[in-house]
Amino acid sequence: MFTRLHTKSRFMSSNIKFTSLCFGLSFAILTIFYDTYYIPNDTEDIAMLTTSEESSTFLESENSTVSDFLKIVEKGDELTINQAIYRIDLNWSEGHEIMLLESIYFSQNEGYSKRLINLLKRKTGKNYGYDFDKWFQYIWNKNSSYDDAYFEFKAKIHERIDSKFGAYFSGRSNQSKIRLDEVRWGGVLQDGIPPLRNPKMISAPEATYLQDSNIVYGIEVNGDARAYPKRILAWHEMFVDTVGETPVAGVYCTLCGTVILYKTEHEGTNYQIGTSGFLYRSNKLMYDKKTQSLWSTLEGEPVIGPLVDKGIKLDYLSVVTTTWGEWKKRHPETSVLSLQTGYRRDYNEGIAYKDYFATDDLMFTIPKIDKSLKNKDEILSIRLPGVTDDNLAISSKFLKKNKLYQSKIGDTNFTVFTDKTGAHRVYKSRDLKFLSFDGNNTTTDENGDDWTLSEEFMKNENGNQLDRLPTHNAFWFGYKAAFPNTKLIK
Fold this sequence. Notes:
Layout: H1 21-36, H2 43-47, H3 52-58, H4 65-71, H5 78-90, H6 97-106, H7 113-124, H8 132-140, H9 148-159, H10 166-169, E1 183-185, E2 196-197, E3 201-203, E4 215-221, E5 224-229, H11 230-233, E6 238-243, E7 246-253, E8 258-263, E9 265-266, E10 269-270, E11 273-280, E12 283-288, E13 294-296, E14 302-304, E15 316-317, E16 320-323, H12 324-330, E17 335-337, H13 354-358, E18 378-383, E19 391-395, H14 396-401, E20 404-409, E21 412-418, E22 424-428, E23 434-437, E24 442-445, E25 450-453, E26 457-460, E27 465-467, E28 471-475, H15 476-482, E29 487-489
Parallel strand pairs: 2-6, 5-17, 19-29
Antiparallel strand pairs: 1-11, 3-17, 4-5, 4-16, 6-7, 7-8, 8-15, 9-10, 11-12, 12-13, 13-14, 18-19, 18-28, 20-21, 21-22, 23-24, 24-25, 25-26, 26-27
């Protein structure tokens, strides 16, 4: 998803005309001196670096923190950039660390990178060079120290990439549930990875482009069964549609290995969501079109913007990760995405994110790496928002070895059934114990009763039903980063 769109251009410093050769020579010497070990001690030292005409306005800009940081990002004349660097140095506070780091990250002035890295090194006492991951982790593992100015800086530096980005942050310092310094641009514009809105669906017999071994994400809403092949969805990361007469959005965070199906209607409002272009702890952030609030993909709620703390949390439904052959066997009436998406992509199996999925490396780092599992080991998430704060992550490898697994979350007993493709289905089990599972769709309880599994519930011969619990898969690293207190079962 995320290849950086901007490219750094080597900054060619222009010749600066000084009022006298003497001043010009002095400025050059001071600049070299500063690059190595010069630290301005007071306002007199700073004023020495400007012409007499400029010195009166130099100190007036001390409060223009955002402006100064933007000046070291944009292409500009040498004097302007140097003055901005000196003001940043003079007016330094701990909250400026993240602004300086992001300024270096996005800077078009490569000729100043070394000086800026040295400044960051001197102010923090850390020496991570150009290892941005380590710098970000250093900042994220401390208490946040940025102030309101950072929201405006974040807005202005990113609206240079996409004019729509500014609205995500500007004026929203009191409308945030997450740390802003952990929100990172993912390398694309708003909806730069285009969601599939009301996509064309075809019947199973028409889907001749699919092989039985192809991975699909299967859903069923009010009897309407649909399949979304990974080979297509990975290029779009979201579909928005009405399924079973219910407005839904299937959100795929490729980086964190999660597909979640949300009901997009909440208390009479149908939220039109899309892909923001930003990440939080390597998890995709969504946005809604009306307010441009940013939403958590994993929790289905606004985290930055005017919708924060309005009691909005979207309900989510189950998604089954399985093969096309297994899904259509269980659901011969299913519909499936057509290749006619309206976009030109290489929709062959395994093409999208091939390199990313092939290793355990991360594209965007997170505050802490938990090595209980490999980064991209798959887990099954079990949560009951509004019922309990407990959070379970069960290793998919563990479940493949334990195809019938029973446990409890909060006060709710549940049973996980894992079929031969590795697909998990989870049901409330009350006080019942299940003794066997045929690996397909039949299980037997301790009383000898057979139960048949479906996508919405399981049912025995007497007509008794046990409801399905909504679950989804995820990569371990991203899930643990989002839910640090989750309990791992492996």
